[in-house]
Specification:
By secondary structure, the protein is an alpha/beta fold. The chain is 41% helix and 17% strand.
Amino acid sequence: MEQKQALIVIPAYNEQNNILKVIRDVRENLPSYDILVINDCSKDNTSAIAKQAGDGVKVVDLSYNLGIGGAVQTGFKYAEKNGYSYMVQIDGDGQHLPSEVNKLFAYMTQTESDMVIGSRFLDIKSFQTTWTRRLGIKVFYYLFRLLIQTKITDGTSGFRMYNRKSIELLSQFYPDDYPEPDAIILISKHGLRIGEIGVEMREREHGVSSITPIQSPYYMTKVIMSILFSFTRTRTRW
């Protein structure tokens, strides 16, 4: 299999007002990276607008709305099948800065981590989410310290880089619901190394988050239960 270097995976659902800018930012800052947009059965023109970006951008249109977990796993399967050494998840809402990807890569190389998380809360001033979500993230921080003895300051961050080992693992086993926190448990249980580095993020310009302040307590409770279930579940043979 031909070995390729790096793939940017952009999961997108109803991001017609953001997707083209995200693609342009990736091209400007990461010209050597391939780009894959996963259109998660959007109801707007996300797919058509992404395809207007032209050569070098592949778009996968899912037949059903799978949610963030299914969309990102599609990216893992593509990266694994096509022999990529690295994969980076950049959300389609424009909050993640492609210019910060070099930080993730440098940290991965220096620490030999298998996954590196971009954190809004680690040694850098960045866009801050709502106080309810920050509270939930703090709870997850202590939960990760208790369960896997690892300090993760931004466990829900979707801005991540993966090497070949983690691509191969997560192409087979990636959580459907609340994938970011669950993936931390999954990677740790399989003996892979997790790193985290502070990155700058920005507030989305268009659209709104699917998790409102009213929904945050419900979301946090379900994520905690999912993390505990993932931790107690028998390790998958891999």
